[in-house]
Write a structure and sequence with these properties.
This protein is α+β, with helices and mostly antiparallel strands. Helices cover about 25% and strands about 30% of the residues. The chain has a 6-stranded mixed β-sheet with strand order 1-2-3-6-4-5, with helices on one face. The protein is globular.
Length: about 120
């Protein structure tokens, strides 16, 4: 049976922050914001914040980072790629999840990074 969970920040959205079905978890974009929804400044802190929000959303469908098989990074500056690559190596063990990396004009709440993910647990 599919499961979804409320937003980790408690704000209402017309979508599920995370949704699980048939062993898969689909996580809506997790922004580089703190627990109160304020954008986090700095490259490394922003990447950490986005991963923290992603981890919270995964937990709502009883999954964790080790279950992630694919991520999509949306960033407001493509030059973050090298820092994001180093960060990815610290966050994920080999074999690391597949990843797409996309530059966008802007993100909600002034965030600089948004990460969405697909996870799978047998």
């Amino acid at each position: 049976m599919p499961t979804s969970a409320p937003s980790a920040t408690g704000s209402a959205h017309p979508y599920s922050p995370a949704y699980a079905v048939a062993g898969f978890g689909f996580v809506s974009g997790a922004l580089s914001v703190d627990e109160s929804g304020t954008a986090v400044n700095g490259v490394e802190p922003a990447l950490d914040a986005a991963i923290a929000r992603l981890t919270e959303r995964l937990a709502t469908v009883e999954m964790e980072l080790t279950d992630v098989v694919k991520t999509t990074y949306f960033v407001t500056d493509v030059s973050l790629r090298d820092a994001a690559n180093r960060h990815y190596e610290k966050i994920f063990d080999d074999p690391r999840p597949a990843r797409s990396f996309v530059e966008v004009a802007a993100l909600p709440y002034g965030a600089t990074v948004e990460i969405e993910a697909i996870a799978h647990r047998a």
